[in-house]
């Protein structure tokens, strides 16, 4: 079932409507639904589109399979016999170019997993450059190259020494769904169920489709994530092996990061490797959107206080609860028992609390992007450091600013009320940024899983700078 991706489909349709040559690079990590998106687009343009999925065979074999796709198109059903003897890309595109009536509609050529072609033929991008420059550049054609190997694709399209440099007209990275975009997967879920599902799975379409919309969150966790027969039980390991060489090193780095922020030195210490060695591995994990580098607000990105955490919720859940308990789940107890005995309320609450902060950030960014915070936010992050006046370490969930205001936020994912004590804790941080920059006012955003106490609501009624956000509010805007 295809869900969402309206923005991405519009981009594809806009490129299709363009009267000139267009070349789209569609990329993103595996499991993001790139092929499903292209299939949805393909279904609307069957009469003028070749959808070809490359494999790891040689050029002649791939060209032969490409010809098979040509034969599926109306107007190409009776091809001359000599076409079966064509065994190289230039000749088949030259033939195709001679047969297409560009005056009717734009013609589309989709090559899925195109990096496979490069693996078997190092000269493939040079050959494609020649095809584009000699045959396609002045034609009404949309060429879509799709792939999952992010580092290879980035090199191909961004390096001035690469043959395809400067040929793309659009670069589309397929991202995970945002938390507010998963409602269509689970139309019967409450806002709380949607939030907890997102905090467990993230926005990866394959994982969302593996949760049964007719089951509750706990039931789905037990039957998929904690079930050794399910794809979700160990897909982290599968992805690391498919995407990366030296997957064991990446696994050790991710295990070291676990579900909380850690510094580069802490990672190096845990896996017994020098920091300069693991830096390159961390860069790859960042490019895959698995981890993220974070720096306290108002400090430069490369500050020594910078830390790393697991950005992807599915990876975070896996390393927090599953990785080190695989043997138990495989050999000793079932998922239901494991959930009740190992995923106790405190562990899950701690886990959800960390992920809830990221949802709150997304909410504020979304408000800003839709002009419901104006002037728009300039930056938004967390903050941790020393309160120089009180001589204690502090951490603030959300700190941001625009041209007028400082924004301070507190996130409470607990069953009890957001209390006046919780609010006073946030208010005690007002002085921390006095020496950084001056603001006309401070805006306070309070996020709570449960209700707010009456005294907190009274303060909010009296002061427009206090914003109380409940779980259901996260989906209203």
Overall SS class:
alpha/beta
Overall mean pLDDT: 93
Rough shape? globular
Number of strands: 12
Strand content: 15-25%
Termini Cα gap = 26 Å
Supply Rg.
Answer: 26 Å
Considering DSSP H and I runs of 4 or more, what fraction of the residues is helical?
Answer: 40-55%
Largest sheet: 5 strands, parallel
Explain this structure to me?
With 477 residues, this protein is of the alpha/beta class. The protein is 43% helix and 16% strand. The chain has helices at residues 6-17, 34-43, 59-70, 89-99, 115-120, 124-136, 150-158, 191-201, 205-210, 217-225, 235-243, 247-257, 264-271, 275-287, 313-322, 326-331, 335-342, 345-369, 420-427, 454-462; strands spanning 22-27, 49-53, 107-112, 141-147, 170-173, 291-294, 307-310, 379-387, 392-401, 405-412, 441-448, 466-470. The strands form 3 sheets. A 5-stranded parallel beta sheet has the order 2-3-4-1-5, sandwiched between helices. Helix 20 links the parallel strand 11 and strand 12.
Features:
alpha/beta; 20 helices; globular; 5-stranded parallel sheet; 5-stranded mixed sheet; 477 residues
Protein topology:
Layout: H1 6-17, E1 22-27, H2 34-43, E2 49-53, H3 59-70, H4 89-99, E3 107-112, H5 115-120, H6 124-136, E4 141-147, H7 150-158, E5 170-173, H8 191-201, H9 205-210, H10 217-225, H11 235-243, H12 247-257, H13 264-271, H14 275-287, E6 291-294, E7 307-310, H15 313-322, H16 326-331, H17 335-342, H18 345-369, E8 379-387, E9 392-401, E10 405-412, H19 420-427, E11 441-448, H20 454-462, E12 466-470
Parallel strand pairs: 1-4, 1-5, 2-3, 3-4, 10-11, 11-12
Antiparallel strand pairs: 6-7, 8-9, 9-10
Helix pairs in contact: 4-6, 8-15, 8-18, 10-17, 11-12, 12-13
């Amino acid at each position: 079932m295809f869900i969402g991706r309206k923005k991405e489909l519009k981009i594809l349709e806009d490129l299709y409507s363009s009267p000139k040559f267009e070349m789209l690079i569609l990329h993103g990590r595996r499991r993001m639904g790139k092929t499903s998106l292209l299939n949805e687009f393909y279904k609307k343009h069957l009469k003028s589109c070749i959808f070809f999925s490359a494999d790891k065979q040689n050029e002649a074999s791939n060209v032969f399979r490409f010809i098979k796709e040509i034969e599926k198109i109306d107007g190409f059903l009776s091809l001359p016999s000599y076409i079966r003897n064509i065994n190289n890309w230039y000749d088949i595109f030259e033939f195709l170019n001679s047969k297409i009536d560009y005056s009717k509609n734009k013609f589309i050529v989709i090559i899925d997993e195109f990096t496979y072609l490069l693996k078997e033929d190092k000269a493939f991008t040079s050959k494609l450059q020649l095809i584009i420059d000699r045959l396609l550049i002045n034609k009404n054609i949309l060429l879509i190259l799709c792939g999952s190997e992010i580092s290879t694709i980035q090199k191909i399209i961004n390096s001035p020494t690469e043959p395809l440099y400067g040929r793309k007209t659009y670069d589309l990275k397929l991202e995970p769904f945002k938390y507010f975009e998963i409602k269509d997967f689970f139309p019967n879920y409450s806002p709380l169920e949607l939030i907890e599902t997102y905090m467990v799975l993230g926005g990866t379409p394959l994982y969302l489709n593996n949760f049964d919309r007719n089951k509750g969150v706990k039931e789905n966790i037990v039957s998929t994530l904690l079930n050794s027969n399910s794809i979700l039980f160990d897909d982290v390991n599968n992805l690391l092996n498919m995407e990366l060489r030296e997957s064991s090193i990446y696994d050790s780095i991710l295990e070291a990061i676990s579900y909380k922020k850690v510094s580069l030195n802490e990672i190096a210490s845990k896996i017994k490797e020098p920091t300069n060695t693991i830096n390159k591995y961390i860069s790859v994990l960042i490019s895959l959107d698995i981890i993220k580098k974070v720096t306290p607000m108002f400090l430069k990105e490369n500050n020594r206080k910078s830390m790393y955490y697991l950005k992807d919720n599915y990876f975070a859940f896996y390393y927090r609860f599953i990785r080190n308990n695989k043997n138990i789940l495989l050999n000793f107890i079932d998922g239901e028992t494991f959930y009740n005995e190992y995923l106790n309320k405190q562990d899950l609450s701690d886990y959800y609390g960390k992920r809830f902060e990221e949802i709150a950030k997304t909410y504020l960014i979304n408000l800003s992007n839709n002009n419901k915070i104006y002037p728009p936010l300039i930056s938004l992050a967390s903050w941790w450091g020393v309160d120089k006046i009180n001589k204690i370490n502090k951490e603030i969930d959300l700190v941001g600013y625009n041209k007028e205001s400082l924004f301070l936020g507190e996130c409470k994912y607990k069953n009890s009320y957001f209390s006046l004590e919780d609010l006073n804790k946030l208010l005690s941080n007002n002085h921390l940024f006095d020496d950084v920059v001056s603001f006309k006012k401070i805006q306070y955003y309070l996020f709570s899983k449960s209700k707010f106490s009456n005294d907190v609501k009274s303060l909010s009624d009296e002061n427009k700078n206090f914003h109380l956000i409940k779980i259901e509010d996260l989906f209203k805007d």
